[in-house]
Amino acid sequence: MDRILIRGGQPLHGEIPIGGAKNAALPLMAAGLLTAERLVLTNVPLLADVHTMAALLRQHGIAVEPVTNDGRSLSLGGAIGSVEAPYDIVRKMRASILVLGPLLARMGEARVSLPGGCAIGTRPVDLHLKGLEQLGAVIRLEAGYVHAAAPRGLAGAKVVLPFASVGATENILMAASLARGTTVLANAAREPEIGDLALCLVAMGARIEGIGTDQLTIEGVAALHGATHPIIPDRIETGTYACAAAATGGAVLLKGARLDHLGAVARILREAGVEVEDAPGGLAVRRLNGLHGVDVMTEPYPGFPTDMQAQFMVLMSVADGAAMVTETIFENRFMHVPELNRMGARINVHGASAIVRGVASLSGAPVMATDLRASVSLILAGLAARGETVVNRVYHLDRGYEAVEQKLAACGAEIERIPG
Ligand code: EPZ
Question: DSSP state, 205?
């Protein structure tokens, strides 16, 4: 397994291109199942998870072909040959569950392996299933698979999500687009990736009101047509590199980043002493003077995103003072803490909260990555630390960050991948 070696202490200076959002690309690719015509996605990030979703769609019979040589534009389309999403693919990527709603809406049936839990939590899909049942699906669980059927098609309904689940919102939104009648989805998640999916569905002929709010009203249509849709920039990649610049005392331009998608991240970074400003072509980020400890609690958008919690904790590890970091979304998302403490951080976990007491500097060490965002937080810690850090098991990283060592090396970081 590849490892990444970092010699820390270099402030980052330069430009970092921000790619298309992983968590928009995956549901948008699943939306390709909703039409027999061609859906073309542009600004596609080159990530392991995107390749996995492409493999899943191909085994459903959908052609997934690059439109441009760099692979950043994909054409999806074709007849669906199989309604089964097999365990050996789903277990690699939980977002595979996002084919359930589209298959059910287009084919009237679906057999999708239940995604297991993952390192950060049990991650049930009960809200997805309950919402689809309210649209008329008959669902049973058997041998680890979701067997869903809607022989007479789906019918619109009023669905109230008990929790603003991103994936459940996406599955129900896609299914409702082809249901008979009107669906009102209340307490819908409001992440920018959902707005991006809704705008793509509208371009395909769907009729959706309330985009960007927590109540979506969908008038089902008989069929959706093809479209071409640009994927929004990745707000978590943006926040990650903003933390990298701040933790190393540097100044970077995040090219293509959108300030309006950052939600609470911009406010919290500014409170911590980081300048985050719109600039020609993207976002300018630099540390002003010292960093201050700032308490954060992860929440659904527009609150502070759980996907930024580990990265922000690194920043707080080298800030003046203390910060309380509370994780309210996932039950086990502090696995980066023991590794950061091995690098000299002073973090104590008490249930869903962690107290971070800033230290003058972290020190490099061999560390182990456990999940996608924990992996990148260890890279950030290595950049800020004195000495050498080796991050093991970086396959987690490649799922969600494109060319991370190249992007950082271009800004002066001493970082290299050691093939394993
Ligand atoms: C999406 O996961 C993202 N993944 C996650 O990003 C992100 O952390 C999460 O939203 C929250 O923002 C993609 O978009 C592919 P949820 P999702 O449904 O849809 C519970 C990353 O690092 N829940 O909003 O699975 C669940 O257990 C990944 O890029 C139920 O109980 O998130 C969790 O505690 C990690 N029942 C909470 O809700 C359900 O049916 C949030 O889940 C669904 C969810």
Answer: T
Is the pLDDT at 53 greater than 80? The verdict is yes
Cβ–ligand 1 contact at 309 (below 6 Å): no
Q: Does any ligand 1 atom lie closer than 6 A to the CB of residue 316?
A: no
Nearest CA to ligand 1 atom 35: 307
Q: Which residues are catalytic?
A: 118
Q: Which two tokens stand for residue 362?
A: 């972290």
Q: How far is the CA of 242 from the centre of ligand 1 (A)?
A: 23
What is the arithmetic mean of pLDDT over 40-49? 97
pTM above 0.85, yes or no: yes
Q: Which pLDDT belongs to residue 322?
A: 98
Q: Cα(229)–Cα(40) distance, rounded to whole angstroms?
A: 6
User: Nearest residue CA, atom 30 of ligand 1?
Assistant: 124
pLDDT in tens, 142-181: 999 999 999 889 999 999 999 999 999 999 999 999 999 9
Cβ of 376 below 6 Å from ligand 1: no
Provide DSSP, 304-350: B-GGGHHHHHHHHHTSBSEEEEE--S-SS--THHHHHHHTT-EEEEE
User: Would you state the torsion angle of the CA atoms of residues 104, 108, 111, 116, taken in this order, to the nearest 10 degrees?
Assistant: 20
Ligand 1 atom closest to Cα of 122? Answer: 27
277 lines ligand 1 (CB under 6 A): no
Report the C-alpha gap between 178 and 37 in whole angstroms: 15
142 CB-contact burial (10 Å; exposed 0-12 / middle 13-18 / buried 19+):
exposed
323 CA from centroid of ligand 1 (Å)? 25
**Mean pLDDT calculated for residue range 84-89:** 95
